Amino acid sequence: MYELHPDRLLPAWQPALAIAREIYESIADLPIVSPHGHTDPAWFAQNRPFDNATALLLTPDHYLLRMLASRGVSYDDLGVPRKDGAPVADPRSAWRTFAAHYHLFDGTPSRLWLDHSLQWAFGIDEELGPGSADAIYDAINAKLGEPDLRPLALLDRAKVEAIATTEFALDPLDHHRTLKEAGLLGRVRTTYRPDDVSDPDNPDFADNLTALAELTGEDVEKWSGLIEAHRKRRASFREMGALATDHGVPSAMTADLDDGAKQKLLNGALAGTLSPHEAELFRGQMLTEMAGLSAEDGMVMQIHAGSKRNTDPALMAVRGANLGADIPVPTNYVDGLQPLLARHGNAPGLRLIVFTLDETAYARELAPMAGYWPSLMIGPPWWFFDSSNGIRRYLDAVVETAGFHNLAGFNDDTRALLSIPARHDVWRREISRFLAELVAEHRLSRASARELAAHLAYQAAKDAYRL
Amino acid sequence: MYELHPDRLLPAWQPALAIAREIYESIADLPIVSPHGHTDPAWFAQNRPFDNATALLLTPDHYLLRMLASRGVSYDDLGVPRKDGAPVADPRSAWRTFAAHYHLFDGTPSRLWLDHSLQWAFGIDEELGPGSADAIYDAINAKLGEPDLRPLALLDRAKVEAIATTEFALDPLDHHRTLKEAGLLGRVRTTYRPDDVSDPDNPDFADNLTALAELTGEDVEKWSGLIEAHRKRRASFREMGALATDHGVPSAMTADLDDGAKQKLLNGALAGTLSPHEAELFRGQMLTEMAGLSAEDGMVMQIHAGSKRNTDPALMAVRGANLGADIPVPTNYVDGLQPLLARHGNAPGLRLIVFTLDETAYARELAPMAGYWPSLMIGPPWWFFDSSNGIRRYLDAVVETAGFHNLAGFNDDTRALLSIPARHDVWRREISRFLAELVAEHRLSRASARELAAHLAYQAAKDAYRL
Amino acid sequence: MYELHPDRLLPAWQPALAIAREIYESIADLPIVSPHGHTDPAWFAQNRPFDNATALLLTPDHYLLRMLASRGVSYDDLGVPRKDGAPVADPRSAWRTFAAHYHLFDGTPSRLWLDHSLQWAFGIDEELGPGSADAIYDAINAKLGEPDLRPLALLDRAKVEAIATTEFALDPLDHHRTLKEAGLLGRVRTTYRPDDVSDPDNPDFADNLTALAELTGEDVEKWSGLIEAHRKRRASFREMGALATDHGVPSAMTADLDDGAKQKLLNGALAGTLSPHEAELFRGQMLTEMAGLSAEDGMVMQIHAGSKRNTDPALMAVRGANLGADIPVPTNYVDGLQPLLARHGNAPGLRLIVFTLDETAYARELAPMAGYWPSLMIGPPWWFFDSSNGIRRYLDAVVETAGFHNLAGFNDDTRALLSIPARHDVWRREISRFLAELVAEHRLSRASARELAAHLAYQAAKDAYRL
């Protein structure tokens, strides 16, 4: 049987193993700080039990869906809803299909996370597979009704000290209002993600700006009014606990244009007449504006750049977004962020955390930039790279130039609630491994390694996000 | 003396070494499946003895020639023929020059392959060098006449279950016809590589299309006739055992144009008036057409993208192509393959295997793409990267996102017959190493590691190529 | 206390550690050859004592300044002079600020170098920090007056056999003249770096060309006169010991234009009317001209490409260049160097050493190119990558394709005199590590490993630079 070994991911050779164990044990039980992610705030506001194993673990996890699809399993058979409402597999049947293909996840982080989740949340240590599919499905469902598997209880069990969700600029934030009334704001926070009103390629852009105008009372057809509307929405988000903003952009390009050029871009965006390059300029100018607002209001700015979204038009047409067909693209941060940094890079109030899906930028661009600009920090490995080997490549590439103190700690960035403790555990094991190898090679003292481990596992995220 | 150690390339630390040995021993003697390569079909059709050590091991091996040239050894002194017929070194003299510089190959895969070949095929375990050059040359030549050193006997000794050669679209396939008559088709197969009729930058393009028209009876001046001609040639290749096509292209760019635009490109290609961008569009459209034909006829499609060919005009002028002056270039697969995949990526019959010389694409593009699209698999490390460290970087970069089952196993892709067992042995050692380290870190069970090793060493190639 | 462990950086696992120790011990005490760097020739010509610890170790080291700045320490507080002459921190105060933030350098090469320097030069083995700042400052200052801490004595103690400084084309070379008169030329050499007269984006370009004309008596407004002026300056530099040229360029682009086009570019450069692309063409054409001159006069040509300079306009305005705001950019060598190599790549006299800040080019471009072109060698890891992990990634990426003999050995490339022995020691430990792992994996004999270690630690640099 596959078991969760206490030494998993740690270096398997001595003396590094002994050092890594000592480091890991000193941080394994620290509280979790989750300053960026995509859990559903309704879970925490309503605190209802989850429906079933499939709805909890399979359907919302695009890592699982995409891999199954890649080996010919249809999204219908996995129970993924269709826009046309045509029937798809029922939850138990989808679970069986998943279990029958579980070997596909050998060697992937999904397997690490799922095995960890099953054991941690449900005490299941049987290996998932065709023979155990029904038993595990039933065992999970039987427990889902228990009080300690409700969302807020799971946060307690996982020692989640603080968790941030992510909402678009037009979101009414009702769930966070509920949480505020319940005295839970601070434990759960929102994040301001204005992609809905900053991307002219969004087909609803003009409508969304109209909604933004109604929400804020600003004249968003003027550039200054648009920025003022953002200023107001940011303040409203802060009332719901937001400490940060987040910006999902296809490239890292920014701009620093004059007022006339900005207004012209806005006019074109509202009229729907921007060229692709102008649309990129619009997004790039908006990033620079957001950096200016962050310098002013102290919200930490996150940039997640470099994902080509919805590369399968058939999947998009039949079922929609965020189901596995987003692919990274090469991303140039040094030229891209230059206008933003030249304008605001030394602003005392600015904290900018950058994430990449282009690992070549770690050592070439992000580490040198974070190792110079006081405002810039490097976010943890993102998405496909939030994995053992991904974390190893990241630490190998960034630490020598950026040091440890320009890293923003860890984000789980997940939609899957149960993966949160699993992901943080992988991070903690990997930093223990990295630091233990430095100690074993006499590059770092044991005392410093333990301090750095605690920093990277817990304090760095609090510091970076001003929690 | 340098010896071939039984543990070579395996992890040198315990407990990984013991695990790796166990895995390696379980796969070391599996048959070889060689679904892509460039051996000469005349060898197998005629089964004649090789001429001498130099003709067998040195002159056809551009890995050796290029390294010697890089340290100032002239191609004349290595016996590489000139177009002008001027004399070059005789085989023994060339061998001596090679032996005198053998230390240049320390730390390179060429040395691993050659040492393995000398020992495996000829029982030579003396180190090649200036002092041993003549003795080894004579020992090789003395054995070349023996029956068990003829090409077909070598396939037997190496347990080659199936091997594919690669021929251009206009090739008469005479050797494969001979092999078919001898009942050897299946053991030896051809592969359809239509670069001769799909690249408008080929100076013979128009002549080649005329020849294609004659061969197929199609009107290749019309786009539909050109595609029909391909359809017929693919069928003819399948009669000679072909299960796959192969496409060597400078970039991964594809296109999906309308009929008018396609015909316009064809007109320009025949007239020789295409701009560089249009020529790339032509090749890109042709890739999309080939994917459509593969979806239809089930031939596995291989794309080898990203080699800048013939970068030394002097070498090209004096001696020709494939002698070491081809250099990789950055290659963008996510944008490049988008039109092809949007059109055919979900076609049930399509199997597309992609190879790269740009390692940055492994984790950023190819693994995410193979981990989504059901038609797409990642080919093994190609050319400069078919080496110990190259394989390590490849597995490190692709497995976590693509899993093991989106990998197409191993290809030796060689022109050097004796390197086939050597190259497969390196691959088998490296996968044993990779899997053993996963086991040692408690990321994979021993039983799964052994199953995956057998898959990657043997079955994956059969499955991927529908053998 | 943090101590310099005798096994630091060596592999910490057996049997690799024992092998690495044996290799390292065989090379640890070899003389140092430093064929490229930025030490101040005045130090050697005047041989005066250094002023104080801050002036020796902190203020000239942009690695330290940039990291401190990245965590919010101001350049004023570090004692970095301002162009406006406004006061900055005194040396002791700057040192205290540095010491208070010394933990920022955990895990970075700066810490390795500085700890090594303090112990090697001053016998200090106490850890730098807020508590020890003053004591260490005083201990250093007390020793700086001693004879064996003068620049020439330091060269002796570090066994520096030869060191090259770098001067611009218009430099009068007075310090080297002094050294020549003292019989020290050969021990100290200059290097010809004509960036001041080859970059039309330099605001002083036209004035510099006027100065070049005066210095050489050539009509530099004609292309042929400009080249002739270079020819003369190169000869003058050779009289001051120069064996090499060096070219700092934003990209690796080269050009091979006809005479008319060259003259047109020169006219535009003098008139200040070149577009950015034309300015790049000018620099690229100049690289090709320099390669031609190198083929003629035998000076080794170095290209350092791919740094985006002065990315912080505020820093540039207040204090100037080379203070930490230079960031690497993606760099394409295969397309970039094609015109130069097609023209001169096979010239018997040409030796071209290429350096990169884009690690993706190591395996994809530089190793294949160096493994083909007889003129081309790969320089050691540069700048941010002259670090333990940087060296590991470099060796991992280049050796299999380029071999060991297309590598140019080591350059320290430093402005910090005391970092020279530290940096060479890190290189020697890292090559010992790399070779030991090859031996442990039975990929290389122990005897070859020791020979290669001595080559890479010492002889390779002498050979590559024709010393």
How is this structure best described in words?
- The structure is a homotrimer of 467-residue chains.
- With 467 residues, chain A is α/β, with parallel strands linked by helices.
- Chain A has 2 domains: 16-47 and 158-464, Metal-dependent hydrolases (TIM Barrel, Alpha-Beta Barrel); 49-149, uronate isomerase, domain 2, chain A.
- Chain A contains 20 helices and 11 strands.
- The first copy, chain A, has helices spanning 16-27, 41-46, 53-58, 62-70, 91-100, 109-122, 133-144, 151-157, 174-181, 205-216, 223-239, 259-271, 276-297, 313-318, 333-336, 338-344, 360-370, 388-402, 419-440, 446-464; strands at 32-34, 160-164, 167-168, 188-189, 192-193, 244-249, 300-305, 307-308, 327-328, 352-356, 376-378.
- Chain A has a 4-stranded parallel beta sheet with strand order 6-7-10-11, with helices on one face.
- The interface between A and C is large, with 46 and 46 residues.
Could you tell me the CATH topology label of the largest domain in chain A.
Answer: TIM Barrel
Kindly state the percentage of residues in helix of chain A. Answer: 40-55%
Structural class of chain A: alpha/beta
Q: Would you identify the CATH architecture of the largest domain in chain A?
A: Alpha-Beta Barrel
How many β-strand runs of chain A? 11
Strand order of the largest sheet of chain A: 6-7-10-11
The mean pLDDT of chain A is 97
Largest sheet of chain A: 4 strands, parallel
Q: Provide the gyration radius of chain A in Å.
A: 22 Å
CATH C-level name of the largest domain in chain A = Alpha Beta
Give the N-terminus to C-terminus distance of chain A in angstroms: 42 Å
Q: pLDDT under 50 segments of chain A (min length 5)?
A: none
Q: Which pair has the most extensive contact?
A: A-B, 47 and 46 residues
